[in-house]
Amino acid sequence: MKIILLGAPGSGKGTLAKKISRDFEIPQISTGDLFRACVKAENELGKKVKSIMESGALVPDEVTIEIVKERLQQPDCKKGFILDGFPRTVNQAKALEKISQIDSVILVDLANEIIVERLSSRRTCPNCGEIYSVEDNPEGKCKKCNSKLIQRDDDKPETILHRLEVYERNTSPLINFYSERLFKVSSSGTPEQTYQPVKAFLEKLEAKA
Ligand code: ADP
Ligand code: ZN
Question: Euclidean distance between the first and final Cα of the chain, in Å?
Answer without folding.
Answer: 9
